[in-house]
Protein: NAD(P)H-dependent oxidoreductase
Organism: Geopseudomonas aromaticivorans
Amino acid sequence: MKVLIVHAHHEPRSFNAALKDCAVEQLSGAGHEVQVSDLYAMNWNPVASAADFGCRANPDYLVYALEQRHNFEAGTLAEDIAAEIAKVQWCDLLILNFPLYWFSEPAILKGWIDRVMISGVFYGGKRIYDRGGMRGKRALVALTLGGREHMFGAEAIHGEIHTLLRPLLQGSLAYCGFEVLPPFIGYHVPYVSAEARAQILADYGRHLHTLDDQQPLVFPSMNDFDDKLMPLQR
């Protein structure tokens, strides 16, 4: 298996970085090929702009998604974007590794999604969900947060964690065709003991070794909708 880990934490000594290192060690040790895009170490530019394009289909008005398509086909995307697209196309499993900020991913990772998961390659028209450009690949979200586990759930104060992560799990990953595996979550990380952190890492190692046994999350299938994306009558 070929694995790309996109890591988004500013502190190399953080527990979140330890989670990334655990994945590299466990997956490499199991014989898989692993690449890491460490966004802060790369000084990744998260801002989508006209500077991403070497030539313009329309120089007078920027429609970002249309220029993504045009520049990919012309081979004139910014070099940093093209390099990351190639990594995603190479991988069988994409792991997004990050701390939860405001019920979402950090801005630097959102900017990676904005600039890399381009129209025409990752999605386009009715090439979405199980017909998306990344079908056949799997994705895993691994995150850390400060809240306790009991704060998330159907009756909990913050609600279901999958609901909070829906823009990422469904709106980005599943939308582009990835088969999305259940996320791995390290709860209450800034406040727990060293022993508890070691247990989280051990749990993550087991999680990574049982990916083939995990049931992917369920998202819409294009087979259930008509040409206008209206639900089919059953």
